[in-house]
UniProtKB/TrEMBL annotation, chains A, B, C, D, E, F:
Residue runs in coiled coils: none
InterPro entries assigned to the protein according to its UniProt record, in alphabetical order: 4CMD/NDH-1_regulator, AhpD-like, CMD-like
Domain (Carboxymuconolactone decarboxylase-like): residue spans on this chain: 40-124
Protein name according to UniProt: Carboxymuconolactone decarboxylase family protein
PANTHER family: 4-CARBOXYMUCONOLACTONE DECARBOXYLASE FAMILY PROTEIN, GAMMA-CARBOXYMUCONOLACTONE DECARBOXYLASE
Pfam short name (any one): CMD
Origin: domain of life: Bacteria
Source organism of this protein record: Kribbella yunnanensis
């Protein structure tokens, strides 16, 4: 089994953590810490694999990855906690509130209005907390 | 881009709003107002397209459309806020509490018991608020 | 364990089979027979529970149950074989091709265009086989 | 229609209730009672069919059935209330906290990290209530 | 009801068709024509609403919209026919094969490996037809 | 970015491949080879992460992991190609045809009959190819 405390795995983790820290603006660590007493290996793999192996790949930049992630999470449904983290991350990598909302409006055609509405509801909560309302959406 | 403030779009919106107002019994406006400072275009299109273009079509009557909508929302999962609106709309167009519950029981066979249970839970909250419990369900 | 060959279960099965035979117009037996050498108990329970216990309940009539079922199957996605059976069943209980198509158009707003398109594609195949094209859809 | 108060159905129900009582450790009755004034037939069929007909089948033992159920509920998403019941049931039939968490980590590869995180979140709440944290997970 | 043959609707349709024609590189018309004898209104609304109202909005450019669409369709599952159209559209608006594949690899973490594998399978078929294999993916 | 050709990654891959080879009975390599000209990194990560990091964890044995995987894939829907691979893998690690079918019957209650039917259909094809029909299912 993969020993997540081995030097190699610690290096993988550090690589992932550097990516995560750069993109998430401080939202993700709470998620990871929350796993410490129940599934530390899951936290390790989210960081080492999800961010170190995948997110760090050069084929897409962070803004593009966030747009895709927002579309996926909105469409899957039931991912409100993850959407909240990723709306914050999206702001942090430079997406505007308008682009975030636009992504959810775009989602409506492919996954239906309910998924879009729930995602916008999550964004609204984040934007309200940060004084980003009203969003100067393009009509 | 579609200018949602053009006379043509305002006419489409008004057409949709007339349908929505007739079927929803006052539950939906809050959803629409909630979008005003973040995604007014989404509210516009839900009304103009969702109700004006689709719901208004004569092929199915409002009771039939609500039965279908309840089945869809229950099956998708994670649409509890929309289910709440549509349970209220369903009552408003004349579906009985028993028919609403029956729809969710029917859903169990196609989408499993958990989806059915969550939908019944939403209905129970609405029915309790309106003094509609117990439901005289057919066995 | 439930002995599906006991007199009580055979009676339940017969009750379900009577409902199924009445509504499906001969499409379902092939599905059931297909299970005979791999999961006869699943076939038994679909008939005894799905049709005998649930479908037979008086709260909704067969047309209503089919509308709901079409909406659910379209929305779940990946249920094309079941959609095909239920499009046939829907015709058999008296839904018109136009009502079937309308159900899938209605689905678009709640589950997105791709689900609606795939469901219409299934209906088209069934309608073509039966000489029911073109559908005189409203507008 | 199936008369859920007939002697045959009461016998089916009792058979299912015996299975349910044995496996669930007292978590499920609240779910069933909650249905009493809105959908008693749904409660009947969950017990009679879900537990009496299916769960009682000898092909898989309760631990195996719970592992499968946990994987399904985590993957479907939006089934947090049912996951909570089934995490408790899983503990009751003898799965360890570590096996439960491991199931959700396994789920990540097939249904993605968000589904796994939400499921672990549910387990954490149950484990915290029962003093089962930290989980001595295998690295 | 919305008269899709009215001058206003024809104008909306034309606006949508202009967007669709610009982005899709000729893949979509077949989908639309396929609806002509069964659900012409669905075709109308996909073009008028999906492309004229939504896709045409300036908040996101076509490359961004395609990345989001690919992520959504891959994650929903069972949308292989729509994925095929959108892989072609994505190439047409200037996404590279490598970016398309990268989007599906990114999807793996959020929706699991099976969804990613099915989407890559669709892309492979399109790329093979167009002589775009092997993809010079970034390691 | 993770260099999948580095010694550390090759070691991770080899660890995963050893697990995969042990459990899959020769079904998976074709999937991996199929990715060689389009997404070799995806193949790498499925092996290194999916099998080396996750599947190899000692908390659950291969039979348990396969039961969970079958339940997940059946429930997600649209994963027939992956189900086929995993039905073969399940046989290879020692699950009986009866246990595989039982898993899908169990799935019916949680994800509905259509998902169960599609999964049984995949199993039937595999079992037919291997002369494992009829399955001596319990009842």
């Amino acid at each position: 089994m993969t020993d997540i405390n081995s030097p190699e795995e610690k290096a993988r983790y550090e690589r992932g953590l550097a990516v995560l820290t750069e993109v998430d603006g401080g939202s993700a660590p709470a998620v990871m810490e929350n796993l410490a007493d129940i599934a530390p290996a899951l936290a390790h793999h989210i960081v080492a694999f999800g961010f170190g192996d995948i997110y760090a790949r050069p084929g897409l930049d962070p803004k593009q990855r966030q747009l895709i992630t927002l579309g996926i999470l909105a469409s899957l449904g039931g991912c409100e906690p993850q959407l909240e983290v990723h709306v914050k991350t999206s702001l942090n990598v430079g997406l505007t509130p308008s682009e975030i909302v636009e992504t959810f409006i775009h989602t409506a055609g492919y996954a239906g209005f309910p998924r879009a509405l729930n995602a916008v509801g999550v964004a609204k909560k984040v934007f309200a907390d940060r004084g980003l309302l009203p969003v100067s959406s393009d009509r």
